[in-house]
Every structure is written in C-alpha cells, then in structure tokens.
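Deliverable D4.2, example record:
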Amino acid sequence: MTRNAIRVGGLLLVAALLAWRVLVDGLADFYAGQETPEGASAALRWRNDQPAALYQQALASSERDPAAAGREFQAAVWADPTDALAFLGLAELWAGSGRQEEARKLVEIADVLAPMRSPALARSAAFWLNQNRPDRALERWSMLLRTRPQAAGQLYPVLLRLADDPATRSWLRPLLDKPPEWWNGFFAYAAANAERSETVMFLYQQRNRAGGSPDNAEQRVYLDRLWKEGRWLETYLAWLGGLDERRQQGLGHLYNGGFELPVTEMGFDWRLSSPRGVAVETVETYGTRGGRALHVTFDGQRVHFQHVYQPLYLEPGRYQLQGRVRPERLQAERGLRWRVRCGGPSARVLVESEPFVGSDDWRMFAADFTVPETDCAVQLLRLELDGRAELDFEAQGGIWFDDLAINRRG
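Output generated by the structure prediction step:
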C-alpha cells in the first residue's frame, strides 16, 4: 500500500507539473499574441524564453538600445530556430552596424525557413534591395504577389518606379523574360498610371511571349493608353502585331468587312453593342459570300442608334466605301446610313451612304470620299440612324450588311 501510495503521489505530482507548464505556456502565448509592448512584458514574466515576446521586445528596443535588441533577437532565435522574422530582425540590426556578410547569411537562412510567409518576404525583399541585390528582392516581391495579391497596392507603384527609371529598368529583365502570373495585373496598372507612355511601351515590347501573340487583356490596355495619347501609328502597329494568322485574313483599309472573324472590340476592329430596343449580331444567313453577315433589328422603340462602328487609319487620299445590303421591312423616317467621319473633336463627316429603308434583296451600295491632308489622322466608320427630330429615331424592322470594304481610288 505504501508503494502504491508513493506511485500515485508521483503521478499526481507529474500531472500537476504538466498542468502548471501548460498554464504557463498558455498564458505566455496569450499575452504574446496581443503584439503590444505590455503584452510582451507580461508574456516574459510568465515565461522568460517566449520567442514571440522576445522578438517583439527586440523590435521595440532596436532603435533606442541596439545592443539589448541584439541580445533579445538572438534569444528569440535560440528559443525558436524556425522563426524567420527573428533572423531578419537580427540581420537588419547587424547590417546597420556594419556586419554585412553575417547579416546576409542570416537572411539566406530566413529565406529558406519562410519562403512563402508574407511578412518575411516583405522584410527580406527590403533587405536585399538595400544590399544592392535587386534580383533577390524581385524574387521575394514576386512570391509575395503570388501568395498575397492584395500586396499589389504597395508593390505595383514600386515596380512602376523601377520601370520608369532607365537606370533601374534592367532590374525587371527576369520578370520580362519569364513573366509571372501576376504580370498582366501590374501591366494594366502601369498602362493606367505611368506618367510616360515610353515606360508602357518598354514593358509591352520587351515582354517575352515565347513567339506568341499578346493576350487580349494585355493588348487592350496597351492600345487604350496609346489611343488616349493620340499615338496613332504606334496604336495601329501594335494592333497589327497582335493579330494571329487567321485574323490577318481580315486586313484591308476596313477590317473584317465580311464579319466572318470574331469581333474583339479593340484596336481597329469593330465595336458592336445592342442598346435598348435594338439587337446587333453577326450570324449566318442566305446570300452571303462567307456565311456570316451583320444583322441589326429594331423593335419600334426610340433610340439614337450609333452602336456599330470601326476606327480607321487611312492615309490622305481618295477612297470608296462599298458593301452589300439587304433591308427587311425597315421603317425609319430618315433611314439608316453609314457615315465616315474624321476622328477627334471635329468629327467632320467625310461621306454618308444613301439612306436604307424598306425591303429589298441583296444589292450593292457605294460612296466616294476624300481623307484630307490635315486634322484627320484617324477616322471612324459608323452605322447611324439618321434623324433631326425625336420622332425620326423610332425604327422598326431589320437590315443585313455584308462585304463592306474601303478601296483606294487614284
């Protein structure tokens, strides 16, 4: 019985010690989790080697007492050798005191310990940038953007500053050679926010696409930026450069005039939309040469219809707009017309087609026009419901168009 009593007493003592240890560790972790100076002090009173509390205390004293902070960072590393942030804190302290080589070794350890942890990635990137190692900083930023996309708000402006400065632009070469999955997001940010269009042109032209064409999202934001700045030639060439072999078949002074190709609604392609009371589509019908045609139908509502158009890039000279048309019981007071205008503020009309109304079989139409030498660098072809009074914009019925073209004359 005495032996059993001793055994039971020993077990109870061990259980009490374990319970006490669990309580102590739990309270220390609780206070450390508050991430405040008071919480760190309370955690260390319960457990003087609580690693998170040591790290927080070291951060708080790093400026006013670097020596004490160094001891606390080292204590935090000994208490938890897997905590990358403790290694980074000590590395920053040592780098500031001239111990560069030792600091670099500590950060290399931290990079292995926490390759995907957001706070460690940000601290590591800042360290390597200060060490004049932009390659390593960009690796950390790239991983940070992949694991924490919301970091884009802080990192995109930094990357744009690097791209905007010719002295640091070359740092982005690894990203341009092998663009990460977040690159399109950054490029869209750069296209919208870069002060100089040359920066956007560099990012677009230097990106490695492995012999392929730019994707639609990338090309769209690029063309929009060039268009807003009136860089017509660069816009047209960039749009041409993004056409694959199939889409190149639609090239001419007017693009995809047979409506056989998918409409991308960017660059010098068609823009098609269906406002209230109108349906706009490209579909198959009889009498076409390729199978598809443009079909516009009106349900009788009042609408200022101007929702089918294409930007043009024509040199000064004489041209003819032509095509095939088939109206189907189209009722409109002044009819539907194609108009070619100069782009820009003037929007000067260069030509308008005959008005289309009524019903008819497929037939040809044509209209000659001249692009002037000045103030007409780009043009616009648009299908418009003609009218002056509000009642003129009530239309009923449908109409088909096919084989639209613009040909040079003389």
